[in-house]
Design a protein that fits this description.
Helix 6 runs antiparallel to helix 7 (about 550-580). With about 650 residues, the chain is an alpha+beta fold. The chain folds into three domains: about 30-250, tricorn interacting facor f3 domain (Immunoglobulin-like, Sandwich), CATH 2.60.40.1730; about 255-475, Immunoglobulin-like (Sandwich), CATH 2.60.40; about 510-655, Up-down Bundle (Four Helix Bundle (Hemerythrin (Met), subunit A)), CATH 1.20.120. Component of the oligosaccharyltransferase (OST) complex.
């Protein structure tokens, strides 16, 4: 491996020294790594005496190559005019790229202008596919452009080829401090690597501005403003190659999304919901040393020129219900502008993103259904853009689910009941299907998954998803809700009318009934005892009236009334006491009830005795102190009995 590396480096320097060019930039490590395969491929091609596919059949009359390096996405526009110098009709034109360059080729587009001369006509996009022609070196990748019609002998055709490359600008140095500008290296060939002989060719390299550290010098190379021009070069043989290295400042934010998952969820009730999950990294020179927010806030254009603190999203018109959040929660630092023609969202991450720093976030928004869903030949057609709406982002892996980045995943979530699903995408993607379950789903919602790697803004084209959907399926979820509420009400009605009690013939049920009867009887006894105590209080009141008025006759009437009331209460009490006495469920409470009745009866006797004594004393005209002395013992006994009766009543209340 070391011998091969040194040999490649030796061949590179031979090719440079044998030409009239020279370079002021010496980056030996990058030269060896990048130029090894391309230089070897060039010499292998030149060693092949007769590449049968292209020899003598075609030649490029004029070729103009313009490479735009103003951002971190490299865009090369080739304008070439090809002539058929052979005898056979030619139906395709070959484009060649070194494998190391082809692996970063994200998109290629070939346009053919149907008009001639000054007559303007519409451009036609020609099919461009990867091919492996026989007799060609394996170190090169070839693309075949299918011409709209065969090219006769002596005929010419003019083509415009746009090639978009990612990860082609290498930071050098690879680590910088917060205060440093970002320098990058771009490597290419001054000669377009054409499989045909080239009559005249020029190369232009557009830079973003700022300083240019160095670039490969040619006698006919010049730097004017921010553009380096090489050429014109004349009569170049096939597969001519001359390395060019440009070392320049590029502080454009290198926004790279390692993974983007776009979930497009269709609701036939009037909305298309888009949810995009980003895993973003700054792909430029990594930041070394500490970060000073004070310096960044004071001079952000100098102290962090290559960082980015905001991102621009160009959303479809009439986007609504927009939100922006990360793992912590909702982020309010965003700005939104929208009208009937365009919608723009500017978001600010929680911190500025420097080289090598990462952030993850989610944005979501809704779109009017009628703008993106149509009926075509009895099918539903979703017509929506594929790529990321973020400006100048590279997506390593994009996943689209219908329900900037090296890879992107799109998921289209279709309504439950959809079938016959198919997709039409203007470029190759990996497709699959999933099932997603949401609220009130029974069989789940079909999800069409579209996955593509190395996605650039040029991939933000419209794609179509076709599926069958019965309008009656729209009633499924509402009917399910109605049925659910109906069954709930029916269940409540049945429950209210169902006898959930225990069987009346069971022992436990009978015991429960007897216990309830005992409790009711005890309650009645308590009420009767309380009524008796109330009669006692009335007798006491009649004695107080007697001491105040001396009306003996009224006092006797009060006693007679009280006696009658107590007799009636005793009659009511007797059957209740008898029931408790014979009830097995009252065995634990009967002693207290029996004691309560006895105490109350004793209290009645002493109450009447005291009342008779006081009345007799008043009839005999005795003094008040004499009366008190005679009833003192009776008064003490009555007070003690009253306390005992109250305690027994309280005990029964607790039980």
């Amino acid at each position: 491996m070391a011998m091969l590396s040194r040999f490649a480096f030796f061949l590179l320097w031979i090719s440079v020294l044998s030409s009239t060019t020279h370079s002021e930039l010496v980056i030996s490590r990058i030269d060896r790594r990048v130029c090894r395969s391309t230089v070897l491929s060039v010499f292998r091609v030149l060693d092949d005496p007769k590449p049968a596919f292209f020899l003598g059949s075609m030649r490029a009359i004029g070729l103009s190559d313009v490479v735009d390096l103003s951002s971190h996405i490299v865009r090369a526009l080739f304008s070439l005019k090809v002539e058929n110098v052979g005898s056979k009709v030619v139906s395709e034109v070959l484009l060649a790229f070194p494998n190391m360059q082809a692996k970063n080729l994200a998109a290629i587009k070939t346009l053919y202008n149907e008009g001639r001369g000054k007559v303007k006509a519409s451009s036609v996009n020609l099919p461009t596919t990867v091919v492996e022609p026989e007799g060609m070196p394996p170190e090169l990748t070839f693309y075949s452009v299918s011409l709209p019609k065969g090219l006769e002998k002596g005929g010419t055709v003019s083509l415009d080829v746009l090639a978009v490359f990612t990860h082609s600008l290498q930071p050098f140095p690879e680590e910088i401090t917060q205060a440093d500008g970002q320098l990058v290296v771009y490597q290419d060939s001054a000669y377009y690597l054409s499989p045909y002989t080239v009559k005249v060719q020029t190369l232009g390299i557009r830079l973003p501005g700022g300083r240019v550290e160095s670039y490969t010098k040619f006698p006919n190379a010049k730097l004017v403003d921010s553009e380096i021009t090489y050429g014109p070069f004349e009569n170049l043989p096939a597969f001519s190659y001359s390395p060019v290295i440009v070392h320049f400042e590029n502080n454009y934010p290198f926004a790279v999304a390692h993974e983007l998952v776009r979930e497009i969820e269709i609701s036939h009730w009037g909305n298309v919901q888009i949810t995009e999950h980003y895993n973003l990294v700054h792909g430029g020179a990594k930041t070394k040393g500490g970060f000073s927010r004070l310096d960044y806030q004071a001079r952000s254009s100098v102290r962090g020129a290559s960082s980015f603190n905001h991102l621009i999203f160009r959303l479809p018109p009439r986007a609504h219900s927009i939100y922006y959040r990360d793992e912590i929660g909702n982020i309010s630092t965003s700005h939104f502008w929208g009208d009937s023609r365009k919608t723009q969202l500017e978001i600010e991450p929680r911190f500025p993103i420097f080289g090598g720093w990462k952030t993850s976030f989610t944005i979501g928004y809704g779109l009017p259904l009628q703008d993106f869903l149509f009926k075509v030949d009895g099918k539903r057609m979703l017509n929506i853009t594929f790529g990321s709406p973020m400006d100048e982002v590279i997506v390593d892996n994009l996943i689209v689910k219908a329900n900037a980045l090296s890879k992107q995943l799109n998921k289209v979530v279709l309504p439950e009941g959809s079938n016959g699903i198919s997709a039409s995408v203007p470029f190759p993607t990996k497709q699959g299907e999933e099932i997603k379950y949401s609220h009130l789903d029974i069989v789940g919602r079909p999800v069409l998954v579209l996955e593509k790697s190395n996605v650039v803004p040029e991939h933000n084209l419209y794609f179509q998803v076709y599926y069958h959907f019965n309008n009656l399926s729209l009633l499924g979820e509402p009917m399910m809700l109605i049925s659910g509420f109906f069954l709930l009400f029916v269940a409540c009605i049945v429950y209210m009318h169902t006898d959930m009690s225990i069987s009346k013939s069971s022992a436990s049920y009978l015991a429960k009934i007897q216990l309830e009867e005992v409790q009711a009887t005890v309650q009645q006894i308590q009420n009767i005892i309380n009524q008796c105590l109330a009669v006692h209080d009335k007798l006491d009141a009649s004695l107080r009236d007697l001491s105040r008025t001396g009306d003996v006759q009224s006092c006797k009437i009060a006693r007679k009334t009280a006696d009658a009331q107590l007799k009636e209460l005793v009659k009511e009490l007797k059957p209740l006491v008898t029931f408790l006495h014979h009830s097995p469920q009252a065995s634990h409470i009967w002693p207290k009830v029996e004691e309560l009745v006895a105490k109350e009866k004793d209290m009645q006797e002493k109450m009447f005795l005291r009342h008779s004594t006081v009345v007799d004393c008043f009839e005999k005209k005795l003094g008040g102190r004499e009366i008190e002395n005679r009833i003192a013992s009776q008064q003490q006994k009555l007070a003690a009995l009253r306390q005992e009766v109250d305690d027994l009543l309280e005990f029964l209340d607790e039980i």
